[in-house]
Amino acid sequence: MKLDESSSGFSSRSTNNELALIPLGPSTSSLSIAGGPTISNGFSSGIGSSFSQDNSFSPLLKDSADGYNSFSNGTKDDTHGLSGLHNLGNTCFMNSAIQSLVHTPPLVEYFLEDYTREINTENPLGLQGELAVAFGELLRKLWSSGRTSVAPRAFKAKLSRFAPQFSGYNQHDSQELLAFLLDGLHEDLNRVKKKPYIEAKDADGRPDDEFAEECWNNHKARNDSIIVDKFQGQYKSTLVCPVCNKISVTFDPFMYLSLPLPSTVTRMITVTVFSGTGDAFPMPFTVTVQKNGNCRDLTKALADVCCLKSSDALLLAEVYERRIYRYLTNPIEGLHNIKDEDILVAYRLPIGHEKHMRLEILHRRADRCAAEPQFNINRKLIGCPFVTCIPNDSTGKSDIYAAVSAVLAPFVRAKAHGPDVSAVKLNGNGPSLDGIVLTDNGATCEEGLSTSTGDDHAVDEHVPFQLSMTDEKGSVRNAIDADSNRGLGIVIRVLMDWSDREHEMYNIDYMDELPEVFKHGFLSKKTRQEAVNLFSCLDAFLKEEPLGPDDMWYCPGCKEHRQASKKLDLWRLPEILVVHLKRFSYSRYMKNKLDTFVNFPIHDLNMSKYVKQMSRGDRQPMYELYAVINHYGGLGGGHYSAYAKLVEEDNWYHFDDSHVSSVNEDAIRTSAAYVLFYRRVRGSCTVSNGVPVDIEMVDSLET
């Protein structure tokens, strides 16, 4: 891990969705600046002269629309940094973001000094410096003496001019405004006047640290500002092709971490597991998988919870209208294709079952009219299909009956009467498949098979159930004979007719109502209320997962777009670490806000676990919270406010538009927390021979 302790700040990288923290310089004067250095008389003497000499900015600086004089003086006894912002009409989203930034110590120090020397009026990606000047003027107003509220009309006018999406007086997302503002400030303050063209290169097998440093230097050659110094970090992105296993590694900058809440990246799926060999009763299992996961992930999760034997495998299938609608045999098929109202089953079969013939067993019941029982009123499929397999060299009828009898074994009633239902004896020496003995007693089953006539109820007393060949729609094709399985391909479908006799022997009532993939109700409400911590959000963000179907990666090996697996790792951390909790979720049909309480640390946030590489002697990245943006209410409205800490006072304040009040630190953690601002602190640890050592103690020994 790289931590730059130079005066220019810590080097980092940005991806347009992440923020960073900054180190504080020594105190040099009398005006408290949220834990940063102080400046006598309110502002440095260089500000006025610099502004007066630069005609391009003087109109902006003389703008007193907000009733503020840029050159007013402050005194030691004045209260600074506790001014509120008037709500101009649904502008609480803007006010909360501004208060969080103007209480970021390095930004306060920077904008109260002579920052105009770094304004870049030539950057075509910037705003000719006007956004930076507008923000700097607003920051000075908020840090002037007294606690008078400020109406940020001039700043909003500039913001709306360059970002029309924030014009008017509608409610907007505070995090989106924050991202735009940081990007805009960076471009306005970019020290690079002419960005060089740098050709992107591959790692070509080079070590990660070497390639990462090259990527960071290339980024800094085009992007060099106070925002990069303090807010930007770098992460490693690894893509793996699921087909050819091609690996692509890139190192990219980020300006804030946008963390999903675990409930937004995972889903619960319920699957009923059947035994294809008849040695266990069907059981439903509920597993938690990644929303962007695939069938391989689901199968693995099921195998873990159902204690799958090493000799068995799971065959996933979707059941619709009592039939098998489809098999989920593609391991990289995305789980987004599975809906909450679907019914999924998994058949536990021996490994290598693909090499055998697959036997599907559908169930049908005939309801008869009491007045005229010789006529059928209705035939309908019932229960859930069974699936098993039989050897490819099976002789036909006897093997099919024996396989059906085996899978029905768990459903035998304790006091079943009639023929032996534990095994069908048809020839005495039938073939076997993984311990299932297929036998024969010479009986025929052509008589009594379900047909379209009134004689369907006829029953062959020599067999415990009546079977007929069927197609995938459940329609009867023909009776089962000795050669029924020959020439039918890999899948054989049979239909079992259930009469009173079958119901007396077997109980399959359980299969009438199999659970759906996810049942909305008490469980889902309870899940939404469960609390999570910040570390589980970080784990979810950095967890390897497949790309979404709309975000396919072009594999240079396959020359095709693939749903590759993606893994993120934090490589270089900034000094100001901004964490966005993704409470808002959007889809084509639904918008939602999660009010999940996220338990986040206020002190001693140790990010060592999440940094890909830390060298011996590197300081552990320890952070302390100093600001929070809160959102109350639902989508399309609600209200924003901010908590901010005056670090030198060690006191927290609540900035609710124009109202500012003190607040206890214990009250900072709420379910409304939306954006968290952390600053890296000293007193961290360094690693020496694997043993943590107190930094302050090391510093004292060295001096």
Automatic annotation (TrEMBL):
**Pfam families per record:** UCH
List the catalytic activities from the record: Thiol-dependent hydrolysis of ester, thioester, amide, peptide and isopeptide bonds formed by the C-terminal Gly of ubiquitin (a 76-residue protein attached to proteins as an intracellular targeting signal)
Give the enzyme's EC designation. Answer: 3.4.19.12
Indicate yes or no for the key word Nucleotide-binding.
no
Q: Read off the InterPro entries from this record.
A: Papain-like_cys_pep_sf (IPR038765), Peptidase_C19_UCH (IPR001394), Ub_carboxyl-term_hydrolase (IPR050185), USP (IPR028889), USP_CS (IPR018200)
Which processes are annotated in GO (biological process)? protein deubiquitination; proteolysis
Gene Ontology MF terms: cysteine-type deubiquitinase activity
Task: Indicate the transmembrane segments per the record.
Answer: none
USP domain span: 83-681
According to the lineage, what is the superkingdom?
Answer: Eukaryota
Keywords in alphabetical order: Hydrolase, Protease, Thiol protease, Ubl conjugation pathway
Q: Does the keyword Phosphoprotein apply?
A: no
By sequence similarity, the record places it as follows:
Belongs to the peptidase C19 family.
What does it do?
Recognizes and hydrolyzes the peptide bond at the C-terminal Gly of ubiquitin. Involved in the processing of poly-ubiquitin precursors as well as that of ubiquitinated proteins.
Mind telling me what this protein is named?
Answer: Ubiquitin carboxyl-terminal hydrolase
Q: What is the lineage of its organism?
A: Eukaryota, Viridiplantae, Streptophyta, Embryophyta, Tracheophyta
